[in-house]
Amino acid sequence: MGERAADTTEGNPPSIPPDDYIHDDLPHGSRFEDDTWDYQDIRPLGHPSRWVRFARIPAGYRNDVKLHVLLQGRPHHPVAVLAGVAIRRKVATLSSILSTVTDLAILTAWGESKGLRTFGDWNQDHANDFLSDLRSGKHREDGRPNGPSTVRHYVVALKKIAMLAPLAQHPLSFQPWPAENASNVAGESTDKGNKTPPLPWETWQPLMVAADTVITRLSPLIIDMQRAFRAARPSEYLSRGVTGQSAVDKLQQHLDGGYLIPLHTGVGRSKHQARGGINFSQIWRTLGISENVRKRTSHNYTPEAIQLIEDAVAAGRMEYGGLMPTEDTWAAEIGLAEAEHLPGVLRAACYIMISSMSGMRDSELQALRRDAFDISAVIPSVRSMTYKSQEVGGKARSWWVPSVVQTAVDALEQLSLTGRLFSRSGKTGQGGEGGEYAFARDLKSFIAFVNAGPEERVGRGTDLDLNPILLRPRDAINATSLRRTLAVYAATYPGAEIGVGIQLGKASIRATSGYVRDQHHAATTVITDERTKAIRQDLKRLLFSGTPIAGPSGDQLENIRVQVISDPKRADQLIARVAENYTLGVVNDCAYREKTAACGPGGPKLADHVCFTTDCPNAVLHQAHVPVWEMQLERHDRALDASNLHPALETNLRRGRAKIAKELRALRPPELLGESE
Fold first, then answer.
1. What average pLDDT does the structure give for the chain?
2. Where are the alpha helices (DSSP H) in 215-302?
3. Which end of the chain is less packed: N or C, by CB atoms within 10 Å?
């Protein structure tokens, strides 16, 4: 248990018994009186912390902050129920609890700096001054200005502290900002549209191509590197091994067999080893010779062995790296440093690919385990745990993904020594699987690897022909932005090819609608112009291509095609007019006409996941949609192959299959479709 410190300030007597437990799921854990609370038993996989330390909270505030945190984990505590105090409906997650403690630590430290020893010393003017300092960055030393969303968190915290008044030792004597909600006080927009901007196409497309290249082309050698790294003798064993004449004989035997003396590559944690110097530790690891043969103070010092090594180098019998041979031209130098560094690059590539193609949150990625990829379902899926809006332990669920994700999952299973795929388990797995995976650290290595030239890249070797990943100061690569980017671009450019062998439409994810819709254009303003250009370009390509156009509105576009071909001078004008009401979609495009729209007035709703597809007179199909319809056809075929189908379900499936086959037949010849006439 943690150390205990009594609050000597005057006030109401404590309302919670000192020996009361702190969380509904931790009845045998830390107690209210402890100044360090341990949440290990409810800590999600990959979560960075298990502790809440109240020693950083000023003594006058500590008991009330503890009360607030306890009611996060026990919202229906008997004492709170009897007092009519309810600050939340469900038990908080560990992330929420830690975030609350951090906010309250900053808030109470500010109060202490202003001479406010308890919450009872505050008034409305103090609360207003605190928000003013938050906005200007003066709320703490070396602080930075905070935006409305952050300010809202502190407004909520103060309002909840006020709700604790019947139980608090030093209650607030006022209601902060009565009759105003936290968003209004903070000046935060109440728009419901997602505000996370997608990554620019010129950043995201090279990022995805590089991730795919690392996973599909480079991963076999990287995995072999890691195996060699783990098999190498650890540093603490280097003093063991043969010495004296036995060391000389062993070294001579290997040199006669073609052994090359390894040289430092200039990569690694130590800055003291210059490139080109003899890597003695690699020799001791590989040949089983004791490092003491080089120590003058050791009775096993063997200068003959050192002279033999130096003579071999002088004769040109050396190589950079020396951990393992390789026939891959992209990595010409493989030493221990490369074998330790490059698995992090591969791990970052897998994180990028899985996050982008599945839409999983960071907590869900952190919880990925072995055998997560399921190919038995109609649509391949990845299984993990989701924690948002769930109970403390989370809930198992699956995410639909394109099959390209399977390669990433397979690579992670080979990298990991534990059941958890994104674990930092150490060289031998002794670190366990509970630690947080710090994606930002590996992302830095990944971008540096991609952007470096062949002579500066870790491992050196030939050029990988990858475009550089260029980031603006405001660009952030994380699970949220990756999830958001694919969702927006899949709704905007369903026919675009991102360089991983599939179109965006086929990579479309089952994301919450807020990620693909953008009512107020808070995020997609950065691509509005590009979207208009893309629609016009796609229409122009479609109309001049001569490929089949199907769907209820296919005839309308065929009429436009005739006009464009017969009078090319009017082509741009006609295409621009059609593009004004034309929207690209994953399953179908929409030539929107309000009078005939099955989705109703207000414009196309493809990005809102509201579309009646070919049951709507406005739907248009062409070659970009064929992969999705083929996938649906295959899905129906698999379902129909199942035994013991209910007759009504079978009838519906056959009706749906006939509809799909009809549209595909209009887009492709029967022999390509595999349909019998």
1. 83
2. 219-231, 244-256, 280-287
3. C
* Residue entry with tokens 């005839």: 555
Contacts of 264 by beta carbon, 8 Å cutoff, 6+ apart: 273, 274, 275, 276, 277, 278, 279, 320, 335
Q: Which two tokens stand for residue 114?
A: 């202003």
What's the rounded Cα separation, in Å, for the pair 521 and 461? 45
One-character DSSP codes across 546-611: ----BSTTHHHHHHHHHHHHH-GGGHHHHHHHHHTTEE--SS-EEE--GGG-TT-SSS--GGGT--
Q: What is the pLDDT of residue 325?
A: 82
Do 316 and 353 belong to one domain?
no
Residue 331 forms part of a structural domain: no
Nearest residue to 177 via CA among 192, 157, 191: 157
Q: What mean pLDDT do residues 260-289 have?
A: 85
- The enclosing H or E element of 395 equals strand 395-400
Q: In what order do the strands lie in the sheet with 381-386?
A: 373-374, 381-386, 395-400
b (16+ CB within 10 A) / e for 463-497: ebebeebeeeeeeebbbebbbbbbbbbbbbbbbbe
Please count the other Cβ atoms lying within 10 Å of the Cβ belonging to residue 354: 31
Collapsing DSSP to helix, strand or coil, 278 comes out as strand
Average pLDDT over residues 556-562: 86
Say which residues have a Cβ less than 8 Å from residue 22's Cβ, sequence separation at least 6: 29, 30, 31, 32, 37, 69, 70, 73, 74
Range of the domain at 388: 342-481
Tokens of 289: 């010779």
Inform me whether the pLDDT recorded for 91 exceeds 70: yes
Amino acid, res. 645: L
Please give the pLDDT value at position 4: 45
How many of the other CB atoms lie within 10 Å of CB of 654? 12
Report the range out of 32-41, 368-377, 563-572 with the highest average pLDDT.
Answer: 32-41
Do the beta carbons of residue 372 and residue 421 sit within 8 Å? yes
**What is the structure's pLDDT at 382?**
85
User: Among 6-10, 19-23, 354-358, 552-556, which is the least confidently predicted range?
Assistant: 6-10
Angle value at C-alpha 453, between 264 and 197, nearest 5 degrees: 120
Q: Do 424 and 567 sit in the same domain of this protein?
A: no
Among the candidates 131, 157, 186, a domain finishes at 186
Q: Check pLDDT > 90 for residue 430.
A: no
d(CA 297, CA 299): 7
Q: Is residue 177 part of a domain?
A: yes
Helix (H, G, I), strand (E, B) or coil at 71: helix
**What sign does the CA torsion over 262, 267, 273, 276 have?**
positive
